[in-house]
Amino acid sequence: MADRERHALKVRHKGRIAQAWLYFMKFLRMFVYQNDWKVLPMAALISGLVGFVMSSLFMHTMEGTLTGSFALVCICIWNGSFNSIQVICRERDVIKREHRSGMRVSSYVLAQMLYQLLLCLLQTIVTLIVTNAAGMHFPADGLLTRWFICDLGITIFLITYAADLMSLWISSLCRSPAAAMTVMPFMLVFQLIFSGGLISLPDIAKPLTSITVSAPGFRAIASLADVNSRPVATVDKILGATDGMEIKYQITLGQVLDALKDNKNNSSVTAARSLKLGYMDTIGNILDDLMKDENFNELRGKNLFAGITVGDILETINELEIAEPYKDRTVGAQTTLGEVVDYLATNKDVQNLRDEGFTIRTSTNDLMDLIGREKALKLIGDKVSEISARPECGHTPDNVLGNWMILILFIPVFSVLCGITLSFIDKDKR
Q1: If pLDDT is split at 50, 70 and 90, which confidence band does 9 have?
Q2: Do residues 69 and 221 make contact, with C-beta atoms less than 8 angstroms apart?
Q3: Phi, psi of 353 (to 5 degrees)
Q4: Which of 148, 147, 166, 152 is nearest to 47 (CA)?
Q5: C-alpha gyration radius of the chain
Q6: What confidence tens digit (pLDDT) does each residue in 199-249 have?
Q7: Nearest C-alpha neighbor of 80 from the set 343, 411, 370, 406
Q8: Is the pLDDT of residue 109 over 90?
Q9: Closest among 13, 1, 25, 174 to 103, alpha carbons compared
Q10: Interior CA angle at 82 toward 163 and 167, to 5°?
Q11: Closest CA relative to residue 61, chosen from 214, 217, 237
Q12: What is the average per-residue pLDDT within 341-367?
């Protein structure tokens, strides 16, 4: 009796669990003797390349962390897809014959799930070890578990396993390995484009991310990496490129006055308008200037009456100490910049000059020094980070758990779809 016939008899008389175990052992033998183990060194090679490229970016900047998260998702989708895309279609005739001989589809699918789970677990371990060895930075503390590498490992495993079972279902739909390999590139492109990672999607296309494995996987990794708290590297590059650059700006008097008008929504304008202008001094200082300053020589020499000059009067006031009780009193007038601006804005003579233009020449360094370089850089960086932040990638346990649950939900869905497809395998055209 042929080996296949003996195997068919064994399968026919086994229970559902026993059949699943029998097929699981068969898949392990295929792993060893049919070179299915090659998926592990392939996973190591891909992980090494990604780890080498992303080592100086991941977990350092916002852009680098987003790119690194996307690259890790690509590794997972690639590994999971190649694990199972040809598994069913390459032995479709054997599965059909054994199904007619008593094989239960549920047992076969369960065995594949257990085998693929083991394979994805090994690939996850390989990916973590190789990327870490290649220089990718992983912090010590985790968000959900004690260690970050454990959180990341769970995420990588769930993405890889969900992608694996998705490809297993596609393999059950295809009738030949050639057909499966034709479909696979389209599936990979769809997963990566609609991951919501590096490619900005229009609103009409965003609902498609809900049917991809890559989207929750990307969000989970980006959340674990705390992407929103990372500095934006683009800001430093732009400021570095413009360092010392001369700035010329044509402006009119009307624009200046309009900018300094009372604007309650602009704190800088409010502060500038409250700036006090004017001159305040004491009577004592004023008398000293009138008596000693060379600018007032002509005034001191003025003859008032009967040969008495202004200087004589000042000296008499000083000698008799008549002004002594008043020397510390202040005189003068003060106004605010806002009051001056409001006056000029309504002055008819000034209105005729509103369109008069003038050129402001300065440099980026002067502008930075005006408000403090460190303060300016921090202000710009914080604002850009706030604008660039992704709410769906917030560094919270609930966010990560929510994406994990979506990935876990994909696993039974693809398994059931695979079982339904295989239940119609006897209806294939011969």
Answers
A1: very low
A2: yes
A3: -105, 5
A4: 152
A5: 40
A6: 788 888 888 888 999 999 999 999 999 888 888 776 666 666 556 666 666
A7: 411
A8: yes
A9: 13
A10: 40
A11: 237
A12: 68
11-15, 61-65, 277-281, 319-323 — which is least confidently predicted? Answer: 11-15
Distance CA 263, CA 259 (A): 8
Q: For residue 145, how far is the Cα from the chain centroid?
A: 23
Confidence band for 2, pLDDT divided at 50, 70 and 90: very low
The string over 74-102, giving b where at least 16 C-beta atoms fall within 10 Å of a residue's C-beta and e elsewhere, is bbbbbbbbbbbbbbbbbebeebbbbbeee
pLDDT exceeds cutoff 90 at 171: yes
Copy the structure tokens of residue 363: 């440099």
CB 82 within 8 A of CB 163: no
* CA neighbor of 254 nearest in space, from 123, 351, 149, 152: 351
Angle (CA) 256-258-259 rounded to 5° is 65
Q: How confident is the model at residue 393 (pLDDT cuts 50, 70, 90)?
A: confident
Q: How far, in Å, CA of 218 to CA of 77, rounded?
A: 11
Which of 258-272 are b and which e, b meaning 16 or more Cβ less than 10 Å from the residue's Cβ?
A: eebeeeeeeeebeeb
Q: Taking CA 114 as the corner, what is the angle to CA 112 and CA 119, rounded to the nearest 5 degrees?
A: 90
The single residue listed with the structure tokens 């003025």 is 302
Q: What residue type is 240 in one-letter code?
A: G
Compute, in degrees rounded to 10, the torsion defined by CA atoms 297, 298, 304, 309.
Answer: 30
Nearest residue to 197 via CA among 222, 176, 178: 222
Token output for 173: 């739909």
* Whether the model pTM is above 0.85: no
Residues 6+ apart with CB under 8 A from 169: 414, 417, 418, 421
CA 36 from chain center: how many Å?
38
Give me the pLDDT at residue 254, please.
Answer: 72
In angstroms, the CA 213 to CA 225 distance is 19
Amino acid at 319: E
Looking at per-residue confidence, does 34 or 70 come out higher?
70
**What is the CB neighbour count within 10 angstroms for residue 135?**
13
